[in-house]
Amino acid sequence: MRYKDEKEILEVIRTFEEATISRDAWKHAEHLTVALHYLSLHDMETATAKMRDGIFKLLKAFEVDLSEEMPYHETLTMFWMRAVADFNASKNATSLLEKANELVATYDKDYPLKFYSREFLFSDQARAAYVDGDLKSGHSGELG
User: Fold this and answer.
1) What are the residues whose beta carbons fall under 8 Å from the beta carbon of 90, sequence distance 6 or more?
2) Burial class (CB in 10 A: 0-12, 13-18, 19+), 120
3) According to the model, what pLDDT value does residue 66 have?
4) What is the pTM for the complete model shown?
5) Span 108-130, mean pLDDT?
6) Using CA atoms, how far apart are residues 35 and 22, in angstroms rounded to an integer?
7) Structural domain range at position 64
């Protein structure tokens, strides 16, 4: 169990939105948790826009020179938003705390490699715009 209570989750959300979460604390589980929170409150388009905008705000706070490097990855963002949306829809009666803990326990950061070869996933093309997987198409709704 990663989170002890919902207050802990809301603190992750707050620090993400304020761009005060430390770079060391902004890991895969935190990405998933923020996505889950947004998808619990908003439609896919709004949740994805909030996630994308928040990531760029964080990159600015982390003082990443986006003209020199581009850590933002559109395909991974869209892939994970779809995967988390499918997961969330399958757990409607579950609390945010239970969902967040199950989500981070179920999906490790390598899950997209079921759908994408590493070379293709980390290509400039996949970073810049969403592309379907070269091994399987996109996120098929397959859980786990």
Assistant:
1) 143
2) middle
3) 74
4) 0.90
5) 94
6) 18
7) 6-128
